[in-house]
Each structure stands twice: as structure tokens, then as C-alpha cells.
Amino acid sequence: MLLKLPPAKVEATEAAADKPVVAILTIEDDIQLFRGNRSNFADLIRTGESLGIVTYVVTIKHLKLGAPRILGFSIRPGEETWVQSWYPRPTIVYNRIPQREDERQPHVKKKLAALSRRPDIRLFNRRFFNKWSLFQWLNENKTTKSYIPETRKLTDAYVLSSLLKKHKTLYLKPVRGKAGVGIMTVSVQTEKKLPYRLQMQEEKGSRTFRCGTMRRLWDRIVKQSANLGEPYIAQQGITLAAVNNRPFDLRALVQKNGYGQWELSGIGARVAGDSSITTHVPRGGYIDDPENLLVSIFGKEQTGKMLFKVQGAAITIAKQIERSCHSRLCEMSMDLGVDTDGHVWFFEANSKPMKFDEPHIRNKSLERIFQYSQYLHRLKQSVKGGAGT
Ligand SMILES: Nc1ncnc2c1ncn2[C@@H]1O[C@H](COP(=O)(O)OP(=O)(O)O)[C@@H](O)[C@H]1O
Ligand SMILES: [Mg+2]
User: Fold this and answer.
1) Which Pfam families does the annotation name (predicted)?
2) For residue 274, how far is its CA from the centre of ligand 2 (angstroms)?
3) Do the Cβ atoms of 310 and 293 come closer than 8 Å?
4) What's the rounded mean pLDDT across residues 143-161?
5) What 3-state class would DSSP assign to 108?
6) 278 lines ligand 1 (CB under 6 A)
7) What is the pLDDT of residues 279-309, one digit of tens each?
8) What angle do CA 38, 65, 93 make, to 5 degrees?
9) What is the best residue among 173, 202, 230, 345 to mutate for testing ligand 1's pocket, by most ligand atoms within 8 Å of CB?
10) How many DSSP H helices and E strands does the chain contain?
């Protein structure tokens, strides 16, 4: 339930000088005041408060950069009610605008651009990533290049046929996709009468189309991808390690810590649902323990080494993404695959990670955001102090 008090009557919260002020940024909504995952926002506010850090939700509309105080939302302890109050101006703005479409609105773009130019405010997570840019960025570095499957922009049938000569399965993915929407796989089974096989991700499970010529395959792909109106990438298909015939992949959460360094907050595993071409939980996939899964395939000794390798890969990849995207990041989640030979592959990174359901990862992920905020605040103060002496 929501309670909206007139701003004139609400109390103002004060900030401690030695602490940052954290605003969770989202977009206004006509019906429910603001959008986004409310339980995530509530967890963030509770974590911030437990550390004595003023934390509130603010909408693009209410975040007036020149104003001395800001109208924000918080949740009453022990209640499910969101209330509006005046808050000090943020020193950290944590971008949690939930949808790409929202971030594409001109007034939102303008505000984010203005925020990123402010020297007194640190903006975390400037924008969503795009799958094609991610591959270009990771291609620029020798180490990160070794983790990426061969990827091309799907511009014409020639791209498809030349990749199919090298790889027996391809993944076709919209560059701005999420949760498996619009993903297809292509494979060629030369021994069959209709050798080309296209599998399309559906709500639950997948649909298969077969044809005898490249021409027909291409026409079907064009028709199917037109539904989304998004450019696609074509990517080498990786034969993921599998348990009971179900492939699985790893979800790593990488965040900056209280020393300003990238650190792994945790790794989860997602096992594919029956007849699904992806591992997403809403598509019948399920959560499992990465160590148990890997031990059952590679044995205990190898698993230790592999987890170490995955951790190293995740951190190296995060650093390269931050370097290439030219904006300050505080966290990202990553979908990584391990193939049947134990090689680690990168599928994508998300700049606004979804909540991890594993409690040990969840708790750490909340704390880290504030630890990194505190680190930045201390850094700023020491620079200020240094300048005065
Ligand atoms: N090249 C690939 N080879 C094998 N499996 C893949 C490949 N690309 C994606 N997948 C599977 O599909 C899932 C979804 O792909 P992803 O790139 O994360 O798209 P989305 O943005 O829809 O989550 C991955 O987590 C992985 O299980
Ligand atoms: Mg994904």
C-alpha cells in the first residue's frame, strides 16, 4: 500500500558528514508512483539504514539536481507502506531504472547524462549493456577474447552460412534481449532430408522448424526476428556441461568492494528446463549448487581449479567491460558457461543484476553496494581534506 503525503508536511532527514547519501534511482509511474522491484529497494534501504547511511528511492522526475533537498520514498520499518520525505542531496546515485524502454525516453536520457557530468555525485550503472558491444569490448583484450564464443552481427544469410561451416550449432540472440526472449538456435544435420533445424524459444519450451535450403532458413529467421524489431547477433554454440542431459550455466555476481576493487560476491548455477534452449528459471530452469554440479562431472580436484578459473575470468571480464564502456560501474552479473572440456565461456553481462535467490549471495550483494559507496565517500573526503592542507 502507498501513502503519499504532501511534501510540505513531511520531515527532512539529515545526513552524517562522514557517510554517503545513497539514492536508488528509478522512474515515476502514474499508478504506483515509481517502478522497479520494491522488495529489492526495501532490502537496500534496510541495509543502508543498518549501516547508518541515508538511503531512499528517488524518481527521475523528483531528482532535481540544483535543489538543496530531494523528495524521496522510503519504507516504514515493519510495514509495507512507502512514504514520501525530504532527503539531503545524494552523493551516490544507484541506477535501478528497470526497463530499457524507460531508459530510452528523452527526459531520462537527459537526466542520466546530467548526472554523469556532476563532480559531486557518483552515478553507478549508467546504462544497460548491449550484447554486441560487450563482444566488441571483450574482443579488444587478449585474455578476455579467449572467453568469448565467435560472434558476428547477423546482417545477412552469408554471415549465417559462413558461421555454420565452422560451428555445428549457432545461437541467434537479440542484442538487447533478456530472459531468453527471441533466442533461437540453428543447426545442420547433413544426414537428414531437411538438414536445417531452427529452434525458437517460446514461453515454455521451444518450437522447431526444419527446411531443406539455406534460403528458406534465412527467410524464417528474418520473419521470426522481425517480431522484436531488434538487431541480432549470431554466435558459436557451446556444448555446455550437462547433468542428466540438462545443460547448466553459471551466474556470477561481481561487485566493487569496500576497497574499490572488483570482487566476486558469489556464483550460482542454473540448470536448463526440459526442452528449453536456455537456462532461465521462468522457462522451467532451476537453481542448483555450482560446486555439486561441477563435482558430479569433473570430480572434486578439477572442480576446485575450475571455480578458481571462473572467478578469475569473471573479474578480468568485469575490468575489461568497465575499461571499454568508459563509465563507472559498481556491479554486474554474468552468464558464464563451462563446456564439456571444462573451458569457461562468456555469454553476457547484465549491468542491473536481478536478485540472487541464494541467501549468502543476496546478503553480500546488498552490503557490497554500501561498502563501495563508503569507500568512494572516504576517498572524496580525503581528497578534499588533502586539498585544504
Ligand atoms: N553461444 C551459446 N552457446 C550455448 N548456450 C548459450 C549460448 N548463448 C546463450 N546460451 C544459453 O542461453 C542462455 C541465455 O543467453 P543470454 O545470452 O544470457 O541471453 P538473455 O539476455 O536472454 O539472458 C544462456 O544463459 C545460456 O544458457
Ligand atoms: Mg542471460
Assistant:
1) ATPgrasp_YheCD (PF14398)
2) 18
3) no
4) 95
5) helix
6) yes
7) 777 777 888 899 999 999 999 999 999 999 9
8) 40
9) 173
10) 10, 20
Pair 12, 77 in one domain: yes
Specify the residue with its C-alpha closest to ligand 1, atom 26. 278
Structural domain harbouring 201? 151-236
Q: Which residues neighbour 139 within 8 Å (Cβ) at sequence distance 6 or greater?
A: 145, 148
- The answer to whether 55 touches 41, Cβ cutoff 8 Å, is no
| Residue 382 included in any domain | no
Mean of the pLDDT values across residues 271-278?
76
Q: Is the pLDDT of residue 4 over 70?
A: no
Residue 301 forms part of a structural domain: yes
374: number of Cβ within 10 Å: 19
Same domain for 221 and 116: no
Q: How far apart are CA 267 and CA 358, in angstroms?
A: 9
Tell me if 95 is assigned to some domain. yes
Q: Which residues contact residue 181 at a Cβ distance below 8 angstroms, ignoring those fewer than 6 apart?
A: 174, 201, 228
H or E element: which one contains 145? Answer: helix 142-145
249 lines ligand 1 (CB under 6 A): yes
3-state secondary structure of 181: coil
> How far is residue 285's CA from residue 243's CA, in Å, rounded to a whole number?
13
What does the alpha-carbon distance between residue 352 and residue 182 come to, in Å, rounded to a whole number? 20
The residue behind cell 574482443 is 139
Beta bridge partners of 332: 254
- DSSP states of 5-48: --GGGSPBPP--TTS-EEEEEE-EETTTEE-S-HHHHHHHHHHH
Count of structural domains, the chain: 3
- Inform me whether the pLDDT recorded for 141 exceeds 50: yes
Ligand lying nearest the CA atom of residue 135: 1
Query: Contact at 8 Å (CB) between 276 and 283?
Result: yes
- CB of residue 335 inside a 6 A radius of ligand 1: yes
- Is 388 part of any domain? no
* Gap between the Cα atoms of 208 and 189, Å rounded: 14
The three-class DSSP label of residue 152 is: strand
Cell numbers that stand for 365 in this block = 550483494
